[in-house]
Design goal:
2 domains; 10 helices; binds arginine
C-alpha cells in the first residue's frame, strides 16, 4: 500500500514538475490598442491579438506569455530573439519585411483621424489650408507616424508629436496639445467611445493588412503560421474578431 501511494505521489510530482516547466512562447505587444490588445477587467492582457495567439499556442502545446513593451521596440525585440514573436495589430509594410517575416494576414485596418467633436474640418489638409499647418498626434513608429511624417512633417506642412501609446496620443488631443490623432480605425472607435468630445473623420489612408512578426530565422515560424492558417480556415479567428468587434 505504502509503495503504491509512493508511486502515485512520485507520478503526481513528476506531472507537476512537467507542467511547471511547460514551455511558453513569448509574445511582445503594446497593450493600449483596443480591441487588439488591452487590459481586461481581471487585469490580464486580452483582445484579438492576445486571444488568437493563445489559441495558436494552445494548438502547438505551448503556454503564452504576453509582454507589454513600446510598439517601437516590437520589431527590434523580435529580431534580436528576445521575444518569440510580436502580435500588435501590426501592419505589413515593405520596410518591415526587410527586418522580420510576417505570418498570413488575419485582420485589416485603416488609418483614421480623431478630432475634437466641434472640429469642422474634413481632413488634415483643411488644417493646413486654414491654419497654415497641422499638429498631428501619433503612436511612435506606427504607420500613422510614418505616413503623416512623410506627408506633412517632411513637406513642411506640420509637425508630428510621437507618443508611447495610442492612448497617450488621445490624452494629448483631449488636453488640446495636438489638432488630431492618426491611428488605426478600430482603436480609434474605441477611444472615441470611451472619451467624451471626440469624433472620427473619414479615413486618410488606404486599407492595411495586419500580421504577426517573427525573426527571419525563427524555428517556430512554420508551425505557428500553419496553426494560424488552420484557425483562420476553421472560423476560430473570425469568432475571436467578432467577439471583440461586435456587428463586424
Ligand atoms: N497598425 C499600426 C502599425 O502597424 C499600429 C499598430 C500599433 N499597435 C499597438 N499594439 N500599439 O504601425
Amino acid at each position: 500500500m505504502k509503495k503504491i501511494i509512493a508511486m502515485i505521489l512520485a507520478a503526481m510530482l513528476a506531472f507537476a514538475g512537467v507542467s511547471a516547466v511547460a514551455e511558453s512562447l513569448t509574445m511582445c505587444t503594446n497593450v493600449a490598442f483596443p480591441p487588439y490588445e488591452f487590459y481586461g477587467d481581471d487585469g490580464q492582457p486580452t483582445g484579438i491579438d492576445v486571444e488568437i495567439a493563445k489559441a495558436i499556442a494552445a494548438k502547438l502545446g505551448y503556454e503564452l506569455e504576453v509582454v507589454d513593451i513600446e510598439f517601437a521596440q516590437c520589431i527590434p525585440g523580435v529580431q534580436s530573439g528576445k521575444y518569440d514573436f510580436s502580435a500588435a495589430g501590426m501592419t505589413v509594410t515593405e520596410e518591415r519585411k526587410q527586418m522580420v517575416q510576417f505570418t498570413d494576414t488575419y485582420a485589416t485596418g485603416i488609418q483614421s483621424v480623431i478630432v475634437p467633436e466641434a472640429c469642422e474640418f474634413e481632413g488634415l489638409d483643411d488644417f493646413v489650408e486654414e491654419n497654415g499647418s497641422v499638429k498631428v498626434g501619433v503612436q511612435m513608429a506606427t504607420t500613422g507616424d510614418l505616413y503623416t511624417t512623410w506627408d506633412y512633417e517632411d513637406e513642411g506642412k506640420g509637425t508630428v508629436e510621437r507618443y508611447a501609446s495610442g492612448a497617450a496620443a488621445v490624452q494629448a488631443l483631449l488636453a488640446g496639445k495636438v489638432d488630431c490623432v492618426v491611428i488605426d480605425n478600430e482603436p480609434a472607435k474605441n477611444f472615441v467611445s470611451q472619451n467624451e468630445g471626440l469624433k472620427i473623420l473619414d479615413t486618410a489612408y488606404a486599407e492595411e493588412e495586419y500580421a504577426m512578426a517573427f525573426a527571419k530565422d525563427s524555428p517556430i515560424y512554420d508551425d505557428f503560421n500553419a496553426a494560424l492558417a488552420e484557425l483562420i480556415e476553421d472560423g476560430t479567428v473570425k469568432g475571436i474578431i467578432d467577439t471583440f468587434i461586435p456587428a463586424n
